[in-house]
Design a protein that fits this description.
Number of helices: 7
Shape: globular
Distance between the termini: 39 Å
Strand content: 15-25%
Oligomer: single chain
Strand order of the largest sheet: 3-2-1-4-5-7-6-8
Structural class: alpha/beta
């Protein structure tokens, strides 16, 4: 099972001592299966609201991961209603493959339903990255890491955020940073190939918001200004 560049980047950003990892909108379950194979956590949860997909994932897991070291469960539910409070331990919620607006609603509902839990979110929206980052800032989330990946002529931001605050950090907690509306570390290229990805993504993003401005339906001057400062 070969992961796409996007899923591989998400998979590589899963570390830490998680008790439960929730692969939300899991589609065919490739990401969760990869995490299951490397025992990324004692418990891997596969979540999707489409019954046929969950049935298919369940059948594959029964066939190939019946004796897996890590435990696995499937859930045919709305991501906004994840039963995190029913499972003790540290949670990582992975949400990918949906738009930023829907992702915002998921994150908002999860945080509201679990106000006392410290939750890490690993997020890869297909659009509305600026709005997603603003939502994370509003929820007082911190940044653990972020990455930019090009996959099949599309660009994706991957954001690892946490509801953990400075007040409730333990001694062994990871270093976190403030989340910024346009990102910070995704623009730092370590090689020429990544520098080209960064350049093309910035141009594409700016052109997108300039088209919105020309349409006159939304005031995006502040967004254009924020990205323009990265040039």
């Amino acid at each position: 099972m070969k992961l796409s560049k996007r899923l591989k980047q998400i998979e590589q950003m899963v570390s830490g001592n998680y008790t439960h990892i929730w692969d939300c909108c899991c589609d065919h379950g490739f990401l969760g299966a990869s995490l299951l194979s490397r025992q990324a956590a004692p418990n891997i949860h596969f979540v999707d609201i489409v019954p046929q997909l969950i049935t298919s994932v369940e059948n594959k897991l029964q066939q190939f991961y019946k004796n897996a070291t890590s435990q696995w469960q499937t859930h045919c539910i709305d991501v906004a209603k994840l039963p995190l409070h029913s499972y003790q331990g540290k949670h990582l919620v992975i949400i990918a493959g949906v738009g930023g607006d829907l992702m915002n609603q998921f994150i908002n509902d999860i945080c509201q339903n679990n106000p006392k839990l410290e939750i890490d979110f690993l997020l890869c929206p297909v659009n509305q990255q600026f709005a997603l980052r603003k939502k994370l800032i509003a929820l007082k989330c911190s940044l653990k890491s972020e990455a930019l990946v090009a996959d099949n002529h599309r660009y994706y931001e991957v954001i690892l955020a946490s509801t953990e605050t400075d007040k409730n950090k333990g001694i062994n907690s990871e270093i976190t940073h403030p989340i910024t509306p346009v990102g910070k570390y995704i623009w730092q290229a370590e090689n020429p190939q990544q520098a080209l990805v960064v350049k093309k993504y910035l141009e594409k993003t700016l052109n997108h918001y300039k088209r919105i401005k020309q349409g006159g339906t939304e005031n995006v001057d502040h967004i254009i200004s924020a990205y323009s400062r990265l040039m």
